[in-house]
Amino acid sequence: MKEINESTKDRVESLSPIIDEESEVLVLGTMPGKESPKRGEYYAASNNSFWKIIGRLFNSNMEFKDYEEKIACLKKHHIALWDTLHFCKRESSLDSDIKEEMTNDIDSLLASYSQIKKIVYNGKKAATYYQTQLPSAIAYSTSSACAKKTEEKIKNWKNALTI
Questions:
Q1: C-alpha neighbours within 13 Å on the C-beta side of residue 64
Q2: Cβ atoms within 10 A of the Cβ of 87, count?
C-alpha cells in the first residue's frame, strides 16, 4: 500500500493560465476543484456551471464537443482564465476549506499581457485574494455551492464580461 505524505495529501495546485495576446478579459477563479487538476481542465466538474454559461453566451447555446473547443471559444471572445491562488491545502473542492494558501503572481501575468482591460472574479472568494487597479466585476460563483439559478448566473456573467 502506498504511503500518503500528510503534508501533500490535500495540496491543490493551480493550472497554467489560458491567455494569449488577444485576451482582453481575465477571469480569475479561486482554485480548481478536485476534478480539474485530475483532468488538466478548468471547471471540469460536471456540476460547475462555467461552461454552460459560456456556451449560452458565446456558443449559440450549443454544448462543446471537447475541452479544446471550449478554449477556442474563450480565445475567440478574448477571454483568459487563471486562478488567484497558486496552491493551497483543501480536503474538498469548497473555497471555505482553503488553508495554507499562496497566491499566483497575477501582476507579472498582467505586465506580460498589458492588453487585459478587465478582471472578472468567479465568486466573492476569488476577489479576496487579489486587488486590481483595472476595471473589475465579481460574478456569481459557477460552483454548485452557489445557490443562484442558472438563468440568474447567465445574466450576471453577461454583464460581468462586458468591457
A1: 22
A2: 16
Residue 48 lies in a domain: yes
Q: Is 76 left (phi over 0), alpha (psi -120 to 50) or beta?
A: alpha
Average pLDDT over residues 114-134: 96
CA distance 19 to 79: 8
Residue 1 covered by a domain: no
Q: What is the mean pLDDT of residues 35-51?
A: 93
Q: Are 12 and 84 in contact (CB under 8 A)?
A: no
- Euclidean distance between CA atoms 149 and 151, whole angstroms: 5
Percentage of the chain beyond pLDDT 90 is 70
Q: Is the pLDDT of residue 51 over 80?
A: yes
For residue 87, what are the β-bridge partners?
A: 13, 102
SS3 129: coil
Q: Is 52 within a domain?
A: yes
d(CA 23, CA 83): 16
In the beta sheet, which residues pair with residue 117?
none
